[in-house]
Amino acid sequence: MMVPDSPAEALGSHAPSVRDTLIEVVRSVHGRFAEAHSVSRSRYGMGFGSQWRDLLDDADDELTKHGFQSHTLTPGGHEIPVVNDCLVYVWRVPDDPDAVSKFAASPTRQSGFAALPPPAMLFEPAFADDVESTEDDADTAETETMLEAVHDTMPLVLVMVWSTPRLLQSIEWAVADLDDAGKVKLRGQECIWEPELVAADVASDGESFDSGTPVQPTVEPRKQEGTDPDAR
């Protein structure tokens, strides 16, 4: 099986729209679970960490709305969207330095690396805002034909969510490849979303501390209690 070098290559012409859709899904799920964690006032993050199933379901729901098919991972029964004959798995990365390499530790995730492409569809799925490319159509068609010809199982695009209850830190994606030892390696890893930095904007709103003359705030004398006749 030939593994694509990047998610853009794996997803073909659908990559930009799929990326935007997944970013919306992840931000929505994170917002819901962060709010629930705040309301619960729990000292523990187990509830926040349980969003994994919502990430899978919401991503599948959104992409199938646009006509893409789903694949059921066994034995867990999770529905995963299929785009351009590639599985798309959205995953919140746990707090473990070896989490990515151990991604395929469960039988259900292992099955994602042995999934066969679904039957060909009568009509090609598309997003409403997709813009047809006149420049890359030939290259995209050639890549898709090559992938169909040489691989017997579907590549897996792993969408990695890095977050805490206080902050959605980043969203990355890559093509996941499973080696002979059962360890996952990433190809074409790329950050597709991160929060905007506001520090520079805040600093630009005022003078630097090492220049200019500090302006003292105007302080009005406060009236003594009992001297204001309106307060009696």
UniProtKB/TrEMBL annotation:
Ranges where the record places region Disordered: 203-232
Comp. bias (Basic and acidic residues): 220-232
Tree of life domain: Bacteria
Protein's name according to its UniProt entry: Uncharacterized protein
Organism, scientific name: Hoyosella altamirensis
